[in-house]
User: Fold these one by one.
Assistant:
Number 1:
Amino acid sequence: MKTQKQKMLAGELYIADDPELAADNRRISEWLDRYNATNTKSQPERQALLEEAFARVGEGCNIRPPFHCDYGYNISLGRGVFLNFNCCILDVVQVTIGDLTQIGSGVQIMTPDHPRDPVQRRQMLEYGRPIVIGANVWIGSGAIILPGVTIGDDAIIGAGSVVTRDIPPGATAVGNPARLRA
């Protein structure tokens, strides 16, 4: 029988307040306390901290604090990724961000989803759907990236947009819900 953590990582229904997951969340909360106190630290010092918590961190990544995430161990960053102040990544499953992607302040990247069936929701079940953001993507401030979305290389997401569907490479998407601009 799978643990709740194994179910979560597999994208299956799981119970989020499981003790093993709560321990993982406490660990990242302690790390976030340290990381979010690094405003005066150099990029290399912050990079070293990112490497402690994330699955993969490419050379030259910069996340400006404050930053928030669920677990950290499901986040993979390519080379030169930049996230501005106050970004949030809810990473119950994999979040992959490609090389040289720039993400504006207050962007939310959300992998958790909830059953549409009210009986399952009453059981406090949820699941995750991975998010993939390609290389050289620019995501404007305040955008929200919803579960299961893939954003192709070289795409642009307008500030404040809510991305509910995949965005093809090189496309520009804006609005709520985000729609492709001609």
Number 2:
Amino acid sequence: MCRWLGYSGDPIRPEELLYQPTRSLIEQSKSHAPDVAIANGDGYGLGWYGTAQGPGLFRSASPAWGDSNLREISAQLRSPLFLAHVRAATGTPVQQTNCHPFRYGEWLFVHNGFIEAFEQVRRELLLTVDPALFPGIGGSTDSELMFYLALTFGLVEDPLGGLERMAGYVETVGRRAGVQHPLQMTVGLSDGVRLYAARYASGPEANTLFLSSSVRDVRLLYPENERLQHFSDEARVVVSEPLVDLPGLWREIPPGSAVVVQPGDDLEVPFGPQAS
């Protein structure tokens, strides 16, 4: 199981979420989940929005916990919106091009989950990708292919709709191949303005996803916590697993749901596969 996080708010240093919390993403990468035999040591990535056109991207196939370059970069840059990911490979090679986030134009994409029986359905899924988009695929993961399928199905114009049509197509192809539960996904997606996150699984169990509560409300609960005073009222964090154990800080996003973190009021909407 991979882990990832997304942040949106006033600019902060990514190290404040990657390294400093008691259950930071780096700490999580060192230990596996109860039903997973390996840690998240198969690479990592950080994608951020800053002063340049489009997002920056830094990825490596080395374990995140031992890479001094990540620590240096995350301590020096400041960003109002970033996505970070630590990888546990599920059958595809450990190499930089297979590390998240994946980037296309203004978009960044991270994923925790898998396409069941991927080798059986991979060729059909690949051939569905828009030929104009196909050269952008640099790796061999099911995650990157999901991103490019969603782009093919209109993600740029309709982000959540593109993800839903991708999910519907993956399920159609998988079940045609005899796969009972083709898809497990929690995804993070951004265009530099909004942060989208969705939680869905074809079967009964969906990987976890959490959204931080209103910073203003949490400050009232924990006025003695100096770290919380630092974050703006607009700050939100989406995580596959909570970074700290503070009651009231995290709200679990239900399966079959998506959230849109944006300036002003955030949105929570149903999420489900659509016919493409």
Number 3:
Amino acid sequence: MKKPALLLSLVVMAQLSLAQSKFIITDGSKNYDAEITVQSCESDTCNGQGTVVLMDKKTKKKFQTLQSEDLYFYLNEKQKPSVNIIQLYNEQSPLIFDDFNFDGSEDIAVRNGNQSSYGGPSYDVYVYNVSKKQFVPSDELTALAYENLGMFQTDHKRKRLITFAKSGCCWHITTEYAVIPKKGLQKVYELEEDATGADEYMKVITRKLVNNKWVIKTKKYKTDDYYKE
């Protein structure tokens, strides 16, 4: 390699190295510390190719490395990323630690761009596999985090995963899923709120799975009264 080409290559490599940013998250998981490396950060926004190295809190050894094509996230006032925050239309952290399939083991969701509805946050979801002793991708759970308004919510008390979707300003739907062991997700509840009509009324439709049959109820409210509730 000629000297000018070598020097140019070294300069580019140095710039790439300087552009990368690294963060340590120690308060997101009871089992793991996480070392995040992301391609670039400017002001309070980070994005680009990212790597998440999970370190076992007990052994202090590297447990597993996960990749993201676009580890997109914001920095707080201390210039650090948040963790485990899921806010509809607002902050959603680069890493979400939780037991998504209610099997007693901690799982993880890693931010991967803004590919959910309306350009919202999207996540690759991994569940802990006891046999393999590592996190493995879950296509079903990842689909939930791509096809709706950002990351789903987890209701541990009722063992439900909850998603939100909308069309424009005036049609919203909330969907709940149960996790059936060795089978996957089963939709068990929907709340549809429809104010797209020309009148001043909101149509509210609830669908609930009872004994494998859908029980459907429809009510109408004055839109202003409904939102007051």
